[in-house]
Amino acid sequence: PRTIQRxxxxxxxxxxxxxxxxxxVGNSSIRTLCNQRPSMFQTTDFLHSSQLNFLxxxxxxxxxxxxxxxxEVVLAASDDYDLEVDANPLxxxxxxxxxxxxxxxxxxxxxxxxxxxxxxxxSEPEESLISNYAEDIYKNLRESEKQFRPKPSYLERHPxxxxxxxxxxxxxxxxxxxxxxxxxxxxxxAVNYLDRFLSYTTFIKRNKLQLVGTAALLIAAKxxxxxxxxxxxxxxxxxxTYAKKQLLRMESVLLKVLDFKMAAPTTNQFLRLFMFxxxxxxxxxxxxxxxAELSLLETDPFLQYTPSILAAGTYCLATYTIHxxxxxxxxxxxTGYTMEEIMPCLTSLHKLYISAETxxxxxxxxxYKTSKYCRVSGLKQLSILQSD
Length: 388
Known about the structure:
CATH class of the largest domain: Mainly Alpha
CATH topology of the largest domain: Cyclin A, domain 1
Oligomer: single chain
Strand content: under 5%
Subunit structure: Interacts with the CDK1 protein kinase to form a serine/threonine kinase holoenzyme complex also known as maturation promoting factor (MPF). The cyclin subunit imparts substrate specificity to the complex.
Number of helices: 15
Family: Belongs to the cyclin family. Cyclin AB subfamily.
Distance between the termini: 46 Å
Radius of gyration: 21 Å
CATH architecture of the largest domain: Orthogonal Bundle
CATH superfamily of the largest domain: Cyclin-like
Number of strands: 3
Pfam families: Cyclin_C, Cyclin_N
Protein name: G2/mitotic-specific cyclin-B2
GO biological process, one term: cell division
Strand order of the largest sheet: 2-1-3
């Protein structure tokens, strides 16, 4: 039971949150893999109207998204556009196999209520797989991260959107993820989708920015979560600023702009891989995750760094704060990164870290004040970084 009743954020009832059957998950997985329309497997979202009143203006009946790739392409959508649904699921052996596969859940090692481990520990088979293929996984992630990077200066392409608006939107996404108990990877993916979409479009209106962010989280939850929220919940958390049809249409546009490339390497993925190669205590682990989520708030300078460098910087800052050590030899060998390469990013992260308490947006700090995350946002901060 929730100890604090939130008046602004939407909430799932216990039955809605835990009562969805495995068959629904199987159907959702198959529909996704069969490339059916998003309306067949839907999600949720909620918005603080007073915090995002500049984004929550009544939506117009149509909108235009200008996409720049090899040339300028115009994607237009209007309210009379109805999404089509393919009513012919695959009727073959592959469907049966997918159904069976989707009903098999990984065996997770959830921590006890009194511990401060994040409840996303790897099972023994997963640990074995990562151990055997860690170098290949890292190599693939490093190659992929170059293809999934947003443009650092993309806000110049959107005169009506400021960096402050984006900060408020991401801060709100953190609240949504926390309220619906979604994973950290879902948040990182949603911000990646948001930034990439804005990198390849121009002149997005300020009253559409929240719609883009909501659609990005909608897709990320479907991609990453076992039980994503329902579409009605996403509409509700935006204070019903947008209708279902608008959200589904924006989801479709976002997927097309991103060319359905959703498997983006994130700072969170690299960070967990680094902590697997060289394990740390739970406090250090949660502090690194906290700093990584803080970095999502700002485009400058953090979009200039690759997710792997950001992960290395968050790892170093966390280990230095707790243990007064930086980058272990095992990770130098594994990643090829030296402290000299990591230091510029580490310095930027440290400035963000020590200023977090005074920032207007506090959703990330509030999240990591809980015992689940060892209350790492309340730890004493080191004002100066010193070399070994």
